[in-house]
Design brief:
Thiol Ester Dehydrase, Chain A; 4 helices; globular
């Protein structure tokens, strides 16, 4: 049995969180794509990157690797869920003003096809379907390089707005 090893590094997540208190979500996410702000540590841990951002839509990408595998030789469902949750949440973030936070209330995931090393580069696109004053709805889809659907998710997201009179930051 040969052991494999992986190391990775990440930037200070509080640098990006601090920026989100004073800049619109779309601007914060664009700064992450441009390398001006660090991405979230979960992206380094899982090996995926935010590659496109516009208001109401984001795209992540990743290359399946052995460290994503479950015991039966395919990418673990938790990787699907993490990518789908990230895309749905960041799509909502891209529409939020400075100082407004968010958190997932639920995530419904559908696994449609196995992802393996042979799948190649996978993208995960998230888009907002509803943005209210207290909640948002977003959907996300995982696609292979040919556009074949690998998995989907729908997420309800709680918007966390500062209390009136509370200092932001």
């Amino acid at each position: 049995m040969t052991d494999r090893e992986r190391t990775f590094a990440w930037g200070d997540p509080m640098q990006t969180a601090t920026a989100a208190r004073s800049a619109a979500g779309v601007d914060v996410l664009r700064a992450v794509v441009a390398g001006e702000l660090p991405g979230p540590p979960i992206a380094a841990t899982m090996g995926f990157d935010l590659v496109e951002v516009e208001e109401g839509r984001v795209v992540f990408a990743f290359e399946p690797a052995e460290y994503h595998y479950n015991p039966i030789g395919s990418v673990h469902g938790g990787v699907y869920a993490t990518l789908l949750d990230s895309a749905a949440g960041c799509a909502v973030h891209s529409m939020l003003p400075a100082g407004v936070g968010y958190t997932s209330l639920d995530l419904t995931v559908k696994f449609l096809r196995a992802i393996t090393l042979d799948t190649g580069r996978v993208t995960c696109e998230g888009s907002v379907t509803h943005l209210g004053s207290r909640t948002a709805l977003a959907e996300a889809k995982l696609l292979d390089a040919t556009g074949r659907l690998l998995g989907t998710a729908v997420s309800s997201i709680l918007l966390i707005r500062p209390q009136p009179g509370a200092a932001v930051g």
